[in-house]
Write a structure and sequence with these properties.
Blueprint lengths: L1 E8 L4 E8 L4 E5 L5 H11 L2 E6 L5 H4 L2 H8 L3 E2 L6 H4 L2 H7 L19 E4 L2 E7 L8 E5 L4 E5 L2 E2 L2 E2 L9 H12 L7 E4 L5 E2 H7 L5 H7 L1
Length: 218
């Protein structure tokens, strides 16, 4: 069974998810954006054997700690989609601009594409390419346990910014409607920032992507 614990990291309070299979105790970090020591202390407390690092997209607060952890434990970095390479290549430049030293550029061992799957122990996560916030953003979905790790695509009551380079509002809205909503209203999602919610709740109340809002905009 999938287990998860959220650890906020960096000055942006980004939700890094420690996920693991409770049958094998093999685990992964989803979006280890920084505060590496803090993350590793928690992993050790949980008794997890890390097997990989997974990135939903290339922004520094989601990917800036991956290189250090990968090197320390010899772990592969998986994701995001290759369209986010230019973001990963600018992490150190951006971290200096935001006075967040220690974050590093990284090169994934495997890029992810729509329809791929990532395994963590006996848990399988489906991969969906969801551009708009960034061009290479992906989300991860555990169909068995009805949970999705959506990075900065969707938040409780909001959606990801699209004013970054190669961001696009309509592309993001299309990704949410075409990739997230069909997974089911009962799906609980872990956003990149802020509290958890469900797709069903956001379809009712989110001022950006609620069904009645999108219908009125057509």
């Amino acid at each position: 069974m999938l287990k998860a614990q959220i650890v906020p990291v960096t000055a942006f309070a980004q939700n890094c998810s420690i996920i693991w299979c409770d049958e094998t105790m093999e685990g992964a970090l989803v979006d280890p954006g920084g505060d590496v020591d803090k993350l590793l202390v928690q992993v050790d407390k949980l008794g997890i054997k890390l097997t990989k690092l997974i990135l939903t997209h290339g922004h520094m607060d989601h990917a800036g700690g991956a290189a250090d952890i990968a090197e320390k434990f010899g772990l592969p970095i998986v994701g995001p989609h290759e369209e986010d390479k230019f973001w990963l290549d600018q992490i150190e430049e951006h971290s200096a601009a935001y006075n967040m030293p220690g974050l590093r550029c990284c090169e994934p061992d495997k890029w992810l594409n729509d329809g791929d799957a990532v395994t963590v122990g006996n848990v399988t996560l489906e991969v969906y390419h969801t551009p708009g916030h960034t061009p290479g953003h992906v989300i991860l979905f555990d169909r068995t346990h009805r949970v999705a790790f959506v990075g900065d695509v969707l938040f409780k009551g909001s959606v990801g910014r699209t004013d970054f380079p190669r961001g696009d509002t309509q592309t993001l809205l299309d990704a949410i409607q075409q990739k997230l909503w069909p997974l089911g209203d009962d799906v609980t999602f872990v956003p990149g920032h802020g509290p958890l919610s469900t797709f069903g709740e956001e379809r009712k109340s989110n001022p950006f992507v609620a069904d009645h809002i999108l219908a009125a905009a057509r």
